[in-house]
Write a structure and sequence with these properties.
Elements (H helix, E strand, L loop, with lengths): L1 H17 L4 H16 L1 H29 L5 H13 L13
Length: about 100
């Protein structure tokens, strides 16, 4: 889904930058893009994809940290342990959340 969306966005940007249709056509495309982005079905699909991505990333994170944890330098192992304890708090070091 993400690759298809990226392709469509790239196609739209390419069209806007490459066309000589003028400002009116640009405004039409901008309005259409805004409507698509605000569509509840699109937003729900994007949120579902993001939740699934976080779920699979969490599983991969735990699998890798369990298998590689003993072979890592102490500083990295401590960081992984601290992340394990804070995982699920709703935030991270970058100020983002799982919502």
């Amino acid at each position: 889904m993400r690759y298809r969306l990226t392709f469509v966005v790239g196609l739209a940007v390419g069209y806007v930058l490459g066309t000589r249709a003028g400002r009116e056509r640009y405004e039409q495309l901008k309005k259409s893009a805004r409507q698509v982005a605000q569509n509840p079905a699109v937003r729900n699909t994007a949120e579902t994809a993001a939740q699934q991505g976080r779920h699979f990333a969490g599983k991969a994170y735990h699998t890798v940290s369990e298998k590689v944890g003993d072979h890592m330098p102490d500083s990295v192992a401590q960081r992984v342990r601290s992340l394990r304890h804070t995982n699920g708090t709703g935030g991270d070091d970058w100020g983002t959340s799982n919502t």
